[in-house]
Amino acid sequence: MNKPATITIAGAGLVGSLLSVMLGQRGYRVTVFERRSDMRREEVDSGRSINLALSERGIYALKMAGLMDQVEKLLIPMRGRELHLLNGTREFWPYGQREHEVIYSVSRSELNSLMMTAAEIHPDVQVLFDQKCQKIDFEKNELSVIDEKTNQPRVHKFEMLIGADGAGSQIRQALIPIAGGESESEFLDHDYKELEIPAGPGVTHQIEKEALHIWPRGGYMLIALPNLDGSFTVTLFMPKRGKPSFEQLDEPDELIAFFKEQFPDALELIPDLKADYFSNPQGELGTVRCNPWYYQNDGLILGDAAHAVVPFHGQGMNLGFEDCSEIIRLLDKHHDDWAKVLPEFDSIRRPCANAIADMAIENYITMRDSVLDPKFQLKKELGFELEKLHPNCFIPRYSMVMFHRIPYDTVFQRGQIQTQLLNELVAGADELSDIDLMSAGKLVQERLSQIVG
Ligand SMILES: Cc1cc2nc3c(=O)[nH]c(=O)nc-3n(C[C@H](O)[C@H](O)[C@H](O)COP(=O)(O)OP(=O)(O)OC[C@H]3O[C@@H](n4cnc5c(N)ncnc54)[C@H](O)[C@@H]3O)c2cc1C
């Protein structure tokens, strides 16, 4: 039996903060070292997206921590995607077909602040800011930390060190070699940049509030998520090099000409386009895959530290929150014996993370390109129809990811079968009435096992 009394967490981002709440509630004494200043007191540039899409897996973990009542106040439902086509028309496509099948826009900083406060309320949880974890000695169980404001170094002895320190994790860099594992980071050829549609008069939203807006343009796209103050955070995803690209659009006039041609309705809504574009950082997008995620009974990595994924399925945070709920489930199962929890967590979660990493990359192509294909719309309609007729067997892949907690690796496998099936069924069909739903149902029953009771 290995049950540490104290737990040290590196990183008070989204995942580290939630985990500290949950472990504090469980009776552990938790110390969290966070490199940045306290975002509730000082403006902190996270360098990351301003708002995020929260969905079922994240909500489940927040409920488990008893935080959902507070988080609900921060949420804006997004019932579907609103496509802004080049010809000026807009199309709204619901994400799901049941009332509760929506995803939610939430401010990263509001959510993170709420969880930090929930952690600190707990007498056994201490969150220390401006503390950068620098060096980890897993032989001596020592963590070297430097105070970013005073430059004062300190050495902290740990029983169990959990790295929730994001995609560039120091803990991962120390843990993987000593555990004899391997790690790879793969960057996309596309970057992103954030822009803003300000609120309309009287804190109104200038475009549909309850939607995730997409301007799909084949090789690149613009998206916008609503904020509670009436504004939208807009993100431009585009290649680093080539035409068009971030490298090429380096003059204000070229930028405006590009938006006039490609995103004319968005251009009217973004008054500070030039300032936003030329002053906001250009972010990279990457996938981190590594193994193992733990070392003996001394160290564990989770969240982006273990598995950063590209943001096109809106799952990075949700996946990290699901890590937290899974840790708690395994602690329950093994009566807090971490010697059993760590290997089981690693073996269950790594295939899941790899699966959503792949699906997230695929979804970039779906969002920026496939949605423009008329067959895509037909497949979407057919998928909903098959779900209505065979709810225990066929659930559209997007819904499995966003509205269920079916393990991601299962989602990936079933998704492949379903995609094949949909492709076969829509071949030669122009509309739903061209498809024989009886025969389609038979194929569903033959190829897919029951998934929900
Ligand atoms: C453009 C974009 C859009 C996204 N949209 C979504 C979305 O819609 N839905 C979704 O679910 N996910 C989304 N994500 C992914 C999501 O942001 C991440 O998965 C999530 O932030 C991971 O949380 P984390 O706590 O693991 O890491 P982070 O949020 O990166 O937090 C890590 C924390 O560790 C701290 N830290 C780092 N190094 C050290 C150190 N050496 N010492 C001490 N502290 C340290 C950092 O300061 C930070 O506070 C998006 C990501 C991007 C880039």
Give a brief outline of the structure.
This protein is of the alpha/beta class.
List key phrases describing it.
seven-stranded mixed β-sheet; binds flavin-adenine dinucleotide; 3 domains; single chain; 453 residues; globular; alpha/beta
Would you give an account of this structure?
This protein is of the alpha/beta class. It folds into 3 domains: 6-75 and 106-185 and 285-363, FAD/NAD(P)-binding domain, CATH 3.50.50.60; 187-284, D-Amino Acid Oxidase, Chain A, domain 2, CATH 3.30.9; 373-447, no CATH class. It is 40% helix and 23% strand. It has helices at 14-25, 56-64, 68-72, 108-121, 170-178, 252-262, 264-269, 273-279, 304-307, 316-333, 338-368, 374-389, 397-403, 408-426, 437-447; strands at residues 6-10, 29-33, 51-54, 76-78, 80-84, 90-94, 103-107, 125-128, 131-137, 142-147, 153-157, 161-163, 182-197, 212-216, 221-226, 232-239, 283-291, 294-295, 299-301. The longest helix is centred in the C-terminal third of the chain and has 31 residues, at 338-368. Bound molecules: flavin-adenine dinucleotide. Flavin-adenine dinucleotide is lined by residues 10-16, 33-36, 48-49, 52-53, 132-133, 164-166, 170, 192, 235, 283, 303-305, 311, 314-318, 320.
